[in-house]
Amino acid sequence: MNDATPAPANALREAQLRAISSDVRMTILRLLRDPAAHFSGQVSADPVAFGVCMTLIAEALGVAQPTASRHLDLLRQAGFLTVRRQGKWSYCRRDEAAIRDFLAWLGQDLGA
Question: Staple partner for 75: which of 21, 22, 81, 107, CB 3.0–4.6 Å?
Answer without folding.
Answer: 81
